[in-house]
């Protein structure tokens, strides 16, 4: 398609580890995943599929030039909560060493099975889910060298690390 995104993290997902879990908060699920990851010093991709008792997300509004800073957009994102929804949480764990390239820790998104509800995950509770983890061996970064808006931009990096933490 013609869809564009300013930033994306992608992988050809092939799980190294998978297991079932029930009746847990997002904090408990992420703690469990960390225990099963190869290392917190490596990137990992995660997929959590099944029935969620609660799913709380926010959605980034569409933007047009001139674009606002990530933090300003994040502060005005609408939030939505659904209960007893089937779907998948997908995303990545980024090591603290690479904060800025990605958001350190877990950064995950949700889409329900009907594809009419989803967004950036704020928190959730699982009813009955399958958790899959992929340990990532190779990291590759591409830059928009043909995009003059990016290459000529004067970007204020002063507070970027803190802004990424707040926005994500």
UniProtKB/TrEMBL annotation:
It comes from the Bacteria. PANTHER family: ALPHA-ACETOLACTATE DECARBOXYLASE. GO terms for molecular function: acetolactate decarboxylase activity. Belongs to the alpha-acetolactate decarboxylase family. Keywords: Acetoin biosynthesis, Decarboxylase, Lyase. One of its GO terms (biological process) is acetoin biosynthetic process. This is Alpha-acetolactate decarboxylase. Pathway: Polyol metabolism; (R,R)-butane-2,3-diol biosynthesis; (R,R)-butane-2,3-diol from pyruvate: step 2/3. It catalyses: (2S)-2-acetolactate + H(+) = (R)-acetoin + CO2. Gene3D superfamilies: Hypothetical protein, similar to alpha- acetolactate decarboxylase, domain 2. It holds the Pfam family AAL_decarboxy. Its EC number is 4.1.1.5.
């Amino acid at each position: 398609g013609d869809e564009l995104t300013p930033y994306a993290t992608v992988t050809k997902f092939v799980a190294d580890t998978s297991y079932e879990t029930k009746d847990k908060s997002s904090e408990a699920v992420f703690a469990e995943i960390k225990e099963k990851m190869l290392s917190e010093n490596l990137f990992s991709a995660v997929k959590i599929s099944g029935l969620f008792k609660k799913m709380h997300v926010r959605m980034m509004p569409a933007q047009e030039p001139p674009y606002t800073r990530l933090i300003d957009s994040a502060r005005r994102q609408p939030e939505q909560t659904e209960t007893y929804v089937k779907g998948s949480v997908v995303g990545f764990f980024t090591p603290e060493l690479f904060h800025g390239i990605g958001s350190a820790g877990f950064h995950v998104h949700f889409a329900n099975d009907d594809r009419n509800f989803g967004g950036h995950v704020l928190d959730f509770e699982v009813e009955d889910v399958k958790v899959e983890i992929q340990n990532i061996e190779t990291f590759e970064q591409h830059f928009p060298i043909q995009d003059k808006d990016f290459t000529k931009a004067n970007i204020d990096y002063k507070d970027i690390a803190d802004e990424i933490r707040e926005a994500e």
